[in-house]
Write a structure and sequence with these properties.
TIM Barrel
């Protein structure tokens, strides 16, 4: 039985004070625990340290939105996996489409980051997803499966136990458009079939697959009812305590 994982990607929103206020609201709403599901928040780098102390011994895990694959060095503006671990991060998002589109991330750089994160005890959430033109031209599944294969190149079955894969169709991120539950399920099934091919059924059945892309309180129940959807990577709806709590408490 895969434990559902609901993660909030706050992107470039929330000052430290706003981040603390949001987490306090989430903790108040989860005072009785998270009821058999895992909850993660991924704030901007500036809020990681203050939130670490606030989240200690709570049902909410701390994650980062990106990292550089080196331990240290002359990499101005970069944050290393060691630094993330030092401030209490358990998770790190890698390969988000905004990183790929705006900052030149490639499948190869995603692969390097995955290996570095795993080497330092962080659990990566690897993002994959197709653009609107790719979907319209019938290339959605080949594109996504190709990203999965390239991203996981060289990873062992043991390392896969610490990994989460998030399918986020680019055309649905921040647009209000959401893949239908059937379409999301179909892509998740294709990803899991690829994992079976690469690592065998035991690894594939144990790995959690999230859906991301305009996840909201009013569509989370139907999405989570799909057999291969094990959680959600949530953007805008994670920026308000009430909406994210509703998502966490899906039916």
């Amino acid at each position: 039985m895969r434990t559902p994982i609901l993660a909030g990607n706050w992107k470039m929103y929330k000052t430290v004070g706003e981040a603390v206020e949001l987490v306090e609201g989430l903790l108040a709403g989860l005072e009785h625990g998270a009821a058999g599901r895992e909850v993660v928040v991924c704030p901007p780098f500036t809020a990681l340290y203050p939130l670490s102390a606030l989240l200690a011994e709570t049902p909410i895990a701390l994650g980062a939105q990106d990292m550089y694959p080196e331990v240290q060095g002359a990499f101005t503006g970069a944050i290393s996996p060691v630094m993330l671990k030092d401030v209490g991060c358990r998770y790190v998002i890698i390969g988000h489409s905004e990183r790929r589109q705006l900052f030149g991330e490639t499948d190869e750089s995603v692969n390097r980051k995955l290996k570095a994160a795993l080497a330092h005890g962080l659990k990566p959430i690897m993002c994959v997803g197709e653009s609107k033109p790719q979907r319209d031209s019938g290339q959605a599944e080949p594109v996504v499966v190709g990203q999965v294969r390239a991203g996981l190149e060289g990873l062992t079955a043991e390392q896969m136990q610490s990994l989460v894969i998030a399918y986020e169709p680019i055309w649905a991120i921040g647009t209000g458009d959401t893949a239908t539950p059937a379409d999301a399920q179909a892509m998740h099934a294709a990803i899991r079939a690829t994992l079976v091919e690469l690592y065998g059924s035991e690894v594939a059945e144990g790995l959690r697959l999230q859906y991301g892309g305009s996840v909201k309180p009013d569509n989370i129940d139907e999405l989570m009812a799909q057999p291969d959807i094990d959680g959600a990577l949530v953007g805008g709806a994670a920026l308000k305590a009430d909406s994210f709590l509703r998502i966490v408490k899906f039916q």
